[in-house]
Amino acid sequence: MFKDPNPINRCKTADEVRAVMVNADRRGRFDIVREGEARLRKMLRLPYGEGTDVERELHAALIFYADVRKERGERPPNRTWPMVERHGWIGTVERLMDGSKQSGFQLLVDIGRPDMSFEAVVIKYPDAFSLKAVNTAYERLATHRETA
Q1: Burial class (CB in 10 A: 0-12, 13-18, 19+), 108
Q2: Alpha carbon distance 65, 77 (integer Å)
Q3: DSSP string spanning 65-115?
Q4: Do 42 and 34 contact (CB within 8 A), yes or no?
Q5: Which of 15, 23, 38, 91 could make an SS bond with 87 (beta carbons 3.0 to 4.6 A apart)?
Q6: The pTM of the whole model exceeds 0.85
């Protein structure tokens, strides 16, 4: 029976893809690494059934935010998707937490839904993020509570 020579095809989650990519890189199988990168890009856009819980919740938060912007007649968050494709969900959120408060967070606060922000997901899954990102998320949410 034919056995698929590319283990990426058997992966069900983004974490499995990443693990295969690490092993393929160690063995010099850069073709598999490239396949894994392509598969991750596709997976990271899938809302359910793929990726980790934190990735699915970050995806849901971004979709919610995009829908709010659409309802308000605003443009979609066109810069965030390319960041996710380049850096993954965690890397993207780490970058967004490393700076001034984001307009997306402020919009969600303004409509009374900070619970649908990336900051809320960071607080829910602190082990998935750097200490700096977690502290930033806490500060932003605390500032919101103080001004509410």
Answers
A1: buried
A2: 8
A3: HHHHHHHTTPPP-TTHHHHHHHHHHHHHHHHHHSSSPPHHHHHHHHTT-GG
A4: no
A5: 91
A6: no
